[in-house]
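Quick one, tokens below. Sequence please?
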């Protein structure tokens, strides 16, 4: 039987671009060109398709300053290629090793972050809305294996996608991969047939980067077990993509009823989240992390499982996650973010402060208004940040502080004192709030212990200072957050 002849690479790339809507034609397409066979093949193919696809191109090349004279030669080669194809070029130069040292990450991670930051900046400067990279089927398979080795969920099995978003810091770019249906061998053959003579990056032969070890050691070993392992992995990626599409549909259906975002923190309704299928819970958690971080770099399956394991734990339990994120269990909700305490309605309160009666006193984060009125002037009930207290029972010597170990008071409606910490637990006050809640103290006729608590602001006054028929002077206290 005669060997089936594949369409030319140009035709396959054009079909892939149209199938996945990789280009718009409205703005220039930025092409990342390192000088290696994959990116040179990509550039040459796209240059020949400009008229057919209705696109204009701009080349971006970054010198990572990692290979000395070879890096300079790479840049010169790309300049020559841009000149022959009559395509504008932007060349950047960055110190990747200095970036690696400053951020304490691997050289591979540093090179990737610096490269994508440069591409985002260049795209902005030339008005491009997308960046084309030379990733091939081989990169796709290697990425899947990297995710498996590091520990991944279903999303990691998808590997590389034709279109993806990359966000680093405040910058975000759209990455398109027109060669994702082409093999690395085919890009080598294309460059040879078209006499393009791409550059060889000797660092691709080193075994220190994980991707290189997977390419040179793991994949050949797997092929000994199954010569069709690459095809098997690609089928797995297709299945994972289909399953994720289903999960995305389910997630969009329940998202608004389960998830609320407050700046840099995401809150999950505890009851509604608990009703979801376990697979959907995992998907929601990963998606929420991606919303907060911009990508799922360093987020592994074990991190998701650590969260799953604490869902039924008591309020106050926390899980530390990469990038300084925390998952916190509260009474009615779960919080995910770098600063879950940011949702606390109480500003931080340090030290102890005196309150004059009557007066308006400024405290850190608060304006406290203390006024004296007659019992007959009461027009409201004490609630929230307002308290109505019998002034003759408290006296006029008041102070405000945060809680202390051993604090006790007699909550309104109870016949005996209770530890403040126990009251906070019973009142289902989130752990992250407790140190911030102002505690008003006084000394008076009934409250005869210096510094006795008379009000836990926002929650309960002390039974012994409540308004009664015998009350003559009412102390109205109001805390206003500033």
């Amino acid at each position: 039987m005669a060997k089936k002849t594949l369409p030319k690479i140009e035709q396959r790339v054009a079909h892939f671009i149209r199938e996945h809507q990789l280009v718009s034609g409205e703005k220039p397409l930025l092409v990342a060109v390192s000088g290696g066979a994959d990116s040179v093949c990509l550039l040459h193919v796209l240059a020949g398709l400009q008229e057919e696809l209705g696109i204009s191109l701009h080349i971006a090349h970054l010198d990572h300053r990692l290979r000395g004279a070879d890096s300079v030669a790479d840049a010169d080669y790309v300049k020559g290629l841009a000149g022959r194809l009559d395509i504008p070029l932007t060349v950047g130069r960055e110190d990747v090793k200095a970036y690696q040292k400053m951020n304490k990450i691997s050289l591979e991670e540093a090179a990737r972050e610096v490269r994508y930051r440069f591409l985002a900046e260049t795209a902005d400067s030339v008005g491009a809305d997308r960046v084309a990279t030379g990733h091939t089927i081989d990169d796709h398979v290697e990425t899947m294996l990297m995710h498996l080795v590091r520990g991944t969920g279903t999303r990691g099995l998808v590997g590389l996608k034709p279109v993806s978003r990359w966000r680093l810091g405040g910058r975000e770019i759209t990455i398109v991969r027109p060669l994702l249906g082409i093999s690395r061998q085919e890009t080598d053959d294309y460059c040879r047939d078209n006499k393009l003579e791409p550059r060889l990056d000797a660092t691709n032969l080193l075994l220190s980067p994980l991707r290189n070890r997977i390419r040179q050691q793991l994949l050949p070993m797997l092929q000994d077990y199954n010569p069709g392992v690459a095809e098997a992995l690609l089928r797995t990626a297709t299945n994972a993509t289909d399953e994720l599409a289903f999960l995305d549909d389910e997630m969009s259906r329940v998202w608004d009823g389960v998830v609320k975002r407050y700046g840099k923190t995401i809150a999950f309704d505890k009851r509604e989240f608990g009703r979801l299928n376990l697979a959907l819970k995992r998907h929601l958690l990963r998606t929420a992390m991606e919303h907060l971080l911009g990508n799922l770099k360093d987020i592994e399956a074990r991190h998701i499982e650590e969260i799953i394991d604490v869902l039924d734990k008591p309020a106050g339990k926390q899980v530390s996650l990469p990038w300084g994120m925390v998952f916190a269990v509260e009474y009615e909700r779960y919080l995910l973010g770098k600063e879950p305490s940011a949702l606390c309605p109480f500003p931080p309160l340090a030290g102890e402060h005196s309150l004059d009666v009557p007066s308006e006193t400024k405290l850190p984060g608060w304006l406290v208004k203390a006024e004296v009125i007659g019992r007959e002037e009461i027009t409201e009930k004490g609630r929230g940040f307002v308290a109505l207290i019998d002034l003759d029972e408290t006296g006029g010597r008041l102070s405000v502080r945060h809680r202390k170990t051993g604090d006790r008071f007699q909550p309104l409606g109870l016949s005996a004192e209770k530890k403040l910490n126990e009251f906070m637990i019973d009142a289902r006050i989130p752990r992250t709030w407790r140190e911030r809640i102002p505690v008003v103290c006084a000394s008076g006729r009934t409250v005869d212990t210096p510094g006795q608590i008379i009000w836990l602001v926002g929650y309960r006054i002390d039974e012994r200072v409540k308004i009664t028929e015998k009350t003559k002077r009412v102390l109205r206290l109001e805390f206003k957050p500033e």
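The chain has a mean pLDDT of 89. The CA atoms of residues 91 and 242 lie 39 Å apart.
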